[in-house]
Amino acid sequence: MTTTALVVDDEVDLCRLMQITLTKMGIKSDVAYTLSQARTFWQDNDYDFCLTDLKLPDGSGLELVKEISNSSNIPIAVITAHGSMDLAIEALKLGAFDFVNKPLELPRLRQLVENAIKVIHQDNEVQVAPECSPEQKMLDSRLIGNSAVMHPLKNTILKLARSQAPVFLSGASGTGKEVVARLIHDLSPRRDGSFVPVNCGAIPSELMESEFFGHKKGSFTGAVADKQGLFQQANGGTLFLDEVADLPLAMQVKLLRAIQEKTVRAIGDTKEVPVDIRILSATHKDLSQLVQDGAFRQDLYYRINVIELKLPTLNARRDDIPVLADHFLAMIADDWQLESPPSLTVEACERLQRHDFAGNVRELRNLLERAVTLAEASYIDVSHLGLPDIEPELINIQEQNHSSTINSSELPARNVESQIDVQSTVQSTKDDEQVIQSSRNMTTQVEQRATNLHPYRTNINHYPSTVQHSSASHNSSSTNVASTHDKESILDSTAQQETSKDISGLQELFDGQLPPQGLEHYLQEQEKQLIITALKQTGWNKTQAAELLGTTFRSLRYRMKKLEISEDAFD
């Protein structure tokens, strides 16, 4: 079946040139010189794609773009003159497939038509077998989850894959921006081309131009051979600029021209080379705020942010956590060559769904890798996750917040009040325990370090959210229990006299009295008492005392000399 196209432009010579080019490519075309004539052709005939100018005698080509995009899925490309780039971006946002600049270059026109034909064939394949579409299978297998926020995201990705417009992926760190970028490429007509990801923050500023645009042999010291840049490597495919906010301003100017003109010039070369690429970019920073602060160029921002796709956090899709966990466990078992992937217990799965993931999907995978390492059986329990306990009140608050996210509505007033009550209770408990906790930390510091004299300590570093939950859970304990435990630890300490002086001094400070001899003298006295306590506990063995205090032998010896601490003075 012959492909048909509608060409809309008020320049007769340009229309004839495009019609001849399309005819040589085996495409039948009709020509309209006005907006009203184009509407008549569109209503009376069926076309596979459309080429339209933005400025027409009786109207704007944007009106035609909007009408065609709302009524059908055929690709429509716009023709724009130099200086009307803002109109081209607006057309892309309205649903245009791609754009081509005037004066018209035939190689660029042929590339645009070939990409449009690929989209047409791709759409025909989907219509023939919609239930077993390979695109839908790929999307479901690589973008895991069927929660309420994932369905519109998947539909949007399918729409973006058909277009050639630049896409800006925004979202917190660990939400899967590169995964989505690869999906957009693999689902697009450019799937046969290269997908070239680049972390803009990992390239030294002095090498950026060479990395992006390449260089010629002998163009600078060390250029012993010609090198292709990232733009040339991505020719015919997709270039993914990750962490684009880290680009220096000097490089942003050069990148803007390359994206707008679709030509690059290598360092040391005398001519520009055309490139056919699609730009995808991403960052976890607030790019609009950086534009206001002057740290990112406004023109480049609008050029790469033609279509913005915001990725949801893992906390907004808690229903997907069990499916994601099973998927990651299967991947871990395959990468580590395990006989069978471990499984999560019901309690462990529920605990993961209640956890506040600051690192999103990346944190979930790292947490599961640690759990698989610590688990000795074929199942993973709550104890293997290494997550702190959550108070029942906080669990209820999380469930209410999760419910409000799915329903896209605000929390009821009673839930907000209960949340404020819980927070105020925790805060008041914090204030009551602050004095006792400060003194207890100084008292029990030596005892805690004495339980582990091995130089290779093992500490699990949690994400910030885990630390916050842990501190909140600890501070919500009863003040009476903390006071009792504090007294017992002081009575059992081998340095009761020294620590009692520290506690009395601290108590004076919290009562509003300042040290009479100044802050510096007070801190030196506290440091001196701790060092003496450690030395007495180790029989004046400086090496072990330094280990207890968490410092080096040379540092301890320096502090002893500075504070005039000697064994003879304390015999």
What composes the largest sheet?
Answer: 5 strands, parallel
The global form is elongated
Beta fraction: 5-15%
End-to-end CA span: 104 Å
Arithmetic mean of pLDDT: 80
Global Rg: 33 Å
The number of strands is: 18
Strand order of the largest sheet: 2-1-3-6-7
Uncertain segments: 408-433, 438-495
Q: Helix amount, in percent?
A: 40-55%
Number of helices: 25
* Helix/sheet category: alpha/beta
If you had to describe this structure to a student in words, what would you say it looks like?
With 571 residues, the protein is α/β, with parallel strands linked by helices. It contains 25 helices and 18 strands. The strands form six sheets. The protein has a five-stranded parallel sheet, with helices on both faces. Helix 3 runs parallel beside helix 4 (85-94), helix 19 (413-450) packs parallel to helix 21 and helix 24 (542-549) packs across helix 25 (553-562). The longest helix has 38 residues, at 413-450. 26% of the residues are buried. The model is unreliable at 408-433 and 438-495 (pLDDT under 50).
Defining traits:
18 strands; five-stranded parallel β-sheet; alpha/beta; elongated; 571 residues; single chain; 25 helices
Summarize the structure.
With 571 residues, the chain is an alpha/beta fold.
Please describe the topology of this protein.
Elements: E1 3-8, H1 12-24, E2 27-32, H2 35-44, E3 49-53, E4 55-56, E5 59-60, H3 61-71, E6 76-80, H4 85-94, E7 98-101, H5 106-128, H6 134-142, H7 150-162, E8 167-170, H8 177-186, E9 195-199, H9 208-213, E10 214-215, E11 227-228, H10 230-233, E12 238-242, H11 249-261, E13 263-264, E14 273-274, E15 278-283, H12 287-293, H13 298-304, E16 307-310, H14 321-335, E17 343-344, H15 346-354, H16 360-374, E18 379-380, H17 382-385, H18 392-407, H19 413-450, H20 464-475, H21 479-492, H22 496-510, H23 519-537, H24 542-549, H25 553-562
Parallel strand pairs: 1-2, 1-3, 3-6, 6-7, 8-15, 8-16, 9-12, 12-15, 17-18
Antiparallel strand pairs: 4-5, 10-11, 13-14
